[in-house]
Amino acid sequence: MTTIAIETTATPAAVTVTGTEVFIPLNKLKKHPNNARKTPHSEASIEAKAASIHAKGILQNLVVEPELDAHGAATGFYLVSIGEGRRLAQLLRVKREQIKKTEPIRCVIDTVNDASEISLDENVTREDLSPADQFERFRELAETRGWGAEEIAARFGVTAPVVRQRMRWVQSAPS
């Protein structure tokens, strides 16, 4: 995969090769109108993503395509096909003054796949971590890194009481 940086003044016309990894300023990213998710993300979901990104950065690239005007010319913006929740979490971090609105966001250009299809695919084929696995990982972090419930909660966007409850569940679960 090729990686390049895009300056805040760059236009998408120069970068349209599918699979190219680019860094695009946050304020140049927009929700794709063909995004499969029409029901807004919950505040809790965006809060959790923002906490995770603050602690670890964005772990998965956003997938974007250049926005084109009615004449097919690049507008200078990119439409987010995959990763809208991560974009919203970053906007929350801007609001909290943790990052600037021009924060470079790692994205992959995709001008081949249908945006509505890949957006649907990402959301339908995903499988959440089972509660037992999640609880076990919390315990492991507490033991191996010495993190308390507050640190774990801050890094994963949940509350400390939830972490403590889940860790107790693991301890009381039959082997």
From TrEMBL:
Matching InterPro entries: Chromosome_partition/occlusion, ParB/Sulfiredoxin_sf, ParB_N
State the taxonomy lineage: Bacteria, Pseudomonadati, Pseudomonadota, Gammaproteobacteria, Enterobacterales
GO CC aspect terms = chromosome
One GO BP on record is: chromosome segregation
Q: Report which superkingdom the organism of origin falls in.
A: Bacteria
**Record domain ParB-like N-terminal: where:** 22-124
Q: Which SMART domains match?
A: ParB
Q: What is this protein called?
A: ParB-like nuclease family protein
Q: Which Gene3D superfamilies match?
A: 1.10.10.2830, 3.90.1530.30
Q: Which CDD domains did the record assign? A: ParB_N_like
